[in-house]
Hints:
alpha+beta, FAD/NAD(P)-binding domain, Elongation Factor Tu (Ef-tu), domain 3, 2 domains, 7-stranded antiparallel beta sheet, 5-stranded parallel beta sheet, 13 helices, 33% helix, binds dihydroflavine-adenine dinucleotide
Amino acid sequence: MDYDAIVLGAGGAGLLAAATAGQLGARVLVIDHADKPGKKILISGGGRCNFTNLGAGPKCYLSENPHFAKSALSRYTQHDFLALVERHGIAWHEKTLGQLFCDGSARQIVAMLLEECARGGAEIRLSTKIGEIAHADGLFRVAGVRAPQLVIATGGPSIPKMGATGIAFQIAARFGLGVVAPRPALVPLTLGPQDQDFLDISGVSCPVTARTGAATFAEAALFTHRGLSGPAILQASSYWTPGAPLTLDLMPKAADMLRAARRAMPRAHIRAVLAQHLPNRLAEVLAARIGATREMANMPDAELDRIAALLRGLSFQPTGTEGYAKAEVTAGGISTADLSSRTMEATRVPGLYAIGEAVDVTGWLGGYNFQWAWSSAVAAGQAIAARRMA
Ligand code: FDA
C-alpha cells in the first residue's frame, strides 16, 4: 500500500480530515480534479467565509436521521474550530445571528487548512481525475495509488461551474451505500405569471418571517425578477417541497398597526399607510392586491382584519427553485443509515468514509454547513488514525 488513507476532494472537509489523520500519524493523500484546493471556501461568505456559527447544534441541520449529526458536532464544536482559527492568528467577527466571518479574507481559512495538512505531512494532488475505483484485498486503488482507507469528501453538485459534481453519489452507489435523493437547497425560489406584480418589483427587500410546512425563518426576503430570494427564503427553500405554499408574514403587528393608522391618518388610503412600514414599491403591489378604495376612517374592523391577515400570510405558490446553478448546498446525499455517526465510516464497507456535504446532513444558512464539514472531517480523521494503529 502507498498511503494509510486516500481522501477524495480537497474542499473544507477533505483538507481538515487529511490534516487531522496526518497529525495523528497517518500517511494521507488528497486527490482533487480542481486546480486549486478549497474553491468553495474562497467564494463563501462573500469572500470572507462564514466559517462557523456560535449557535451550531443538531437542530440546525436537515437529515433523514436528525440525530446522526449529534455525535460529530458535539465532539468537534464551533468553539474548537474557532480555537484553530485563533491559533492561526486569523482575525474574525460575528456579523449577525452567531455567524462568524474572517475580518480579512476566506483565503486565510484555505491557507490555515493547507498549513495544517503540511504539519500532518498530508500530500495534495490537484488536477487529478478520480476515474475507476478498485477495491480488493482490503485495499482501495484510485488514480494509481493504493490505501486501506478511502474518504469520500467530494461535496455535492451545487454550483457545477466551480467543478462541483455528484461523483460522491456514484461512488456511494458503487459500494452499495444508500443515497437520499439529492436536491438543491439554500436556493432562490421561482414564481409564475400569477405573481408578475411581485416579479416586477425585483430588488425590493424587507424583513419577513417565511414559513413552509413547520419551518419558519425570520430574516430578510428579496424579490427578484425570477421570484424570491434573500436569507429567509434561502433558509425556507431547504424545507420547501414542490407544490407546497410559502407564506410571508410581513408585519407581525399588522392588526394593531392598521387600527392605529385609522386613528392617526383617517383620510389616508391603504397604500400610504403601508408605505410608512414597507418599501414603497411593495406597498403599491400589496395595495393593488388588497383592492381597498376607501379611506382608512371608513374601513370597519372586519376590513382591517382582512388586510391584516393578508399582510401576515402573504401566500405564494413557488413554481420551483433556481436549481444547482444557484444552490448554496445540496440537500440529501449519502444515507446516514449506512454510516457510523461516531466515525463516518460505512457500516458495511470497512475503511470507506463519507464526510461533509456529500452526506445527507444539510445545515441552515449562516456557517452551519462549514461546521458540519469540520466536525465530520475530524471524526473521520481521528478514526482513520485509530484504525491504522489497530
Ligand atoms: P466542497 O464542495 O467544498 O469540496 C469538494 C471538493 O471535491 C472540491 O474541491 C471539488 O473540486 C472536489 N470534487 C468534486 N467532484 C470531483 C470529481 N469528480 N473528481 C475530483 N474531485 C472532485 N457554507 C457555510 O457554512 N458558510 C458560508 O459562508 C458558505 N458560503 C457559501 C457560498 C457559496 C456561493 C456556496 C456555493 C456555498 C457556500 N457554503 C457556505 C456551503 C459550503 O461551501 C459547503 O457546504 C462546503 O464547502 C462543503 O464542504 P465539502 O468539503 O464537503 O465540499
